[in-house]
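2024-03-11 09:14:02 DEBUG pipeline.ingest accepted 1 chain
2024-03-11 09:14:02 DEBUG pipeline.ingest length=136
2024-03-11 09:14:03 DEBUG pipeline.predict start
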Amino acid sequence: MALFIDRFFQVGRKNTISLKNDTQISRTGPWVSIPAETEFDRFFLGDFTAVEYTLFVDLDTTNKEIIKVLVIASLDKASLTVYGRSNLGVDLVNISATVNDSYVSVKATPTDEAYIKSKLVYNAFYFQNQNLLLPT
């Protein structure tokens, strides 16, 4: 079956991509298992310096959550902000970011041993460096 991309997208304002009316985007796996502290993403500082994540964590029928996260980094510092979180009563994971001279590692850790079978799916919107990263 041929898929014609112009059935779903059009040129938007300010040179953006616009979804045509009634077009939606859905996301399913691949998922990452979170049995302990687990790196789910890594980006190299020469490529990107910031990212916006939407994380979906699914343990079972009654334990799910969605998290919005911002990460920004330089060569020696990473900053992470959780700016949105919704769940069915309990936080399933904690999110952290660390940096070395080469890359940023973003990790999820179960908040309790009862949540070690959680599965995480994420979308990422990366931002490229606009200036060369130089040691301070």
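2024-03-11 09:14:41 DEBUG pipeline.report Strands lie at 9-11, 17-19, 32-33, 38-44, 48-60, 63-73, 78-87, 93-99, 103-110, 119-128.
2024-03-11 09:14:41 DEBUG pipeline.predict end
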